[in-house]
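Take a protein:
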Amino acid sequence: MQNQAIQVSGLQKSYNKLPVLKGVDFEAEKGSIFALLGSNGAGKTTIVKILTTLLKQDGGTATVNGFDVAAKSNEVRQSISLTGQFAAVDEILTGRENLIMIARLRHLKNASQAVGDLLDRFGLTEAADRRVSTYSGGMRRRLDIAMSLVGKPQLIFLDEPTNGLDPEGRLEVWKTVKELAKNGTTVFLTTQYLEEAEQLADQIAILDGGRIIAHGTLAELKMLFPPAKVEYVEKQPTLEEIFLAIIGKNEAK
């Protein structure tokens, strides 16, 4: 489908004959925030590596921005960006110098203008000529995401983007992620913070036992959770309660 940024069908991957992905299926729409949830070791990072062409699948298919990840890996890489769990910034350089370095590596024309626009967009103009070693955790993460957007990739992968940040830093990144989607960038997010997915995601997929066991909007996932009422006040389940209930049902099979 033309409106899908990511299409995954029957994805399989094993390590030393131990299956990690056992037939994963999901789709992510263009311009949306897609959150992949799962316990540690569920295979989230394996999926991200396959979709970003860092790892080859054993079976199934995956397309990113219309390109098959196995057959058209160069085209996939040119249309995406990947930000890992820890900010990959040079602390000796200034924020501006970090961005200029990436712009030059990508052979970007009008690099100075593009860098200026990104600094302004991410609220880093005032700190642009300070060394990154003086930045707060939230500022470093915003700079890291800004660096990922040099060249305007259609899709950005964020692997646990608020890992290790304080509450204020997390809120800064949440605001940034929302603005990315608002401006048309597709965001594929993995997170261990269920509240994060609850606040940000348009679509949520839960990975367990090597398969996607639930997929939909938060409202759709809430429908899978039995309603609980206390006297006259209906209690809305949190995403954490939904996640634990779904995982528990799957393990009981």
